[in-house]
């Protein structure tokens, strides 16, 4: 059974005693609770963001807030706080936990507690539920060295008329099903196709391949609105590299020279096997390593974006 994950991190005992923000209160993690009538618990009705704290700086904060408020607006949910107030809650959570570096923050907002357990948002009793979980998380170095193995799932990424992945909704069941299928096949993560059979993304990250010195990724029509994805594309273009945001097939993926995934926590993580086939020579490639180093320099403030 594969044990790596794009969401994997180095275990840190300090996380046992973190304080969690739940609707105006800071409580020990073991006491952090929401109602069983909460919209998020009942039907996954809400939006969220994952942020990363590096050397006192919340990476791409404005980008994350843009996506959060856009998603909330799309589902007609009034967060009830402006950007400065919401940012203040995140920063206060970090301050209460004494966190200045190496933290990952999950900001979760649901439609709030309901009068009864049903689908109708008109049964909400009051304001949204806001939860902030901050933990010490550092990507596992062995995953970066070994690379991830992927399995192509039969579960597809959906179009925005079915389920818009760019909303960053709490609902993730189809993606979890894809991941379970990959795990059962002995892989680490799921590679997912779009409704037309082209490569879209992985179950929790954006996917890239390298072919003859060019960086390829999907058009973005059927996958996450990845902030790290966009930053990586910007870095490559700023350095004069060739980028294609295009439809491509599994056959083109199998013959790629290199592959990797991007996400907030892991940054850039190599992919070394797909559906049992080695990618390139089966090891993290030179292009991926060099780009990962450039991205690391960017997020630590050692280089301009």
Describe this structure as you would to a colleague:
This protein is of the alpha+beta class and 305 residues long. The chain has helices spanning 39-43, 61-74, 83-96, 141-146, 173-184, 227-238, 250-254, 286-299, and strands spanning 19-22, 25-28, 46-54, 57-58, 103-110, 129-136, 148-152, 189-193, 199-202, 206-211, 214-217, 243-245, 258-263, 267-274, 277-278. The chain has two domains: 13-136, D-amino Acid Aminotransferase, Chain A, domain 1, CATH 3.30.470; 141-299, D-amino Acid Aminotransferase, subunit A, domain 2 (D-amino Acid Aminotransferase, Chain A, domain 2), CATH 3.20.10.10. The chain has eight helices and 15 strands. Helix 6 links the parallel strand 11 and strand 12. The longest helix has 14 residues, at 61-74. The model has no long low-confidence stretch (mean pLDDT 95).
